[in-house]
Amino acid sequence: MIKAVILDIDNTLYDYDAAHAAAFRSLTEYAAEHFGIAPEAFEALHTEAYRVQRERCVTPCAAMHNRMIRYQIILEMLGRPFLPAREMDALYWETLMNHMRPYPGTLEGLERLKALGLTVGVGTNMTADRQFDKLIRLGLGSYIDFMVTSEEVNAEKPDARLFRACAEKAGREASDCVFVGDSLRGDVQGALNAGMKAVWFCPPDKTDYAPRIASLTQLCDLLSSLDHPGA
User: Fold this and answer.
1) Among residues 13, 22, 9, which one has the least CA distance to residue 98?
2) How far is CA 202 from CA 27, 130, 231, in A?
């Protein structure tokens, strides 16, 4: 029986892609103003810096998401002082936070889950500070009972360690938990491999892996069928 619902954050509770696009535009404008770099050139530098950052991390970890490191690498590539990386990092995140809005149905869906007496948690790749900030800025913190980040467990989805930590914090067996997220590999397959049930948030087409939803309000209607798949 489902007793806990665990949610991804980015592109599950809000439109990360749209907020990121706005934040990245602010960076390209900053680079044009301060370094005289055209948007296309900055995007190429950013891609290369991300490649270097991932290569240095060796294994998947939360440090891959630290944008200040990425901007530091960009400045080093340009032969410039590295300290503006902090200003670039602050600019990116403040712009992204300002453009975040909960997906339609998110608040209502969370209220319904809590009314059912379910434990509601978050399982997310990323550093804890940024994900705490997102939940606060989205106004969702009061609905969430716990959070597990890849920084905390030193493992990225779909690694089972992150999902096991979610079940442990929920105080439930993995089979009594359902994980909801937008990534087929990271969220859905990762949860299923860890013994949880899974719901794919707003995929482009049907899937044999898991039921799909386009809003958290639809999740409550699925819970009974997840408990009794043959009914």
Assistant:
1) 22
2) 29, 24, 24
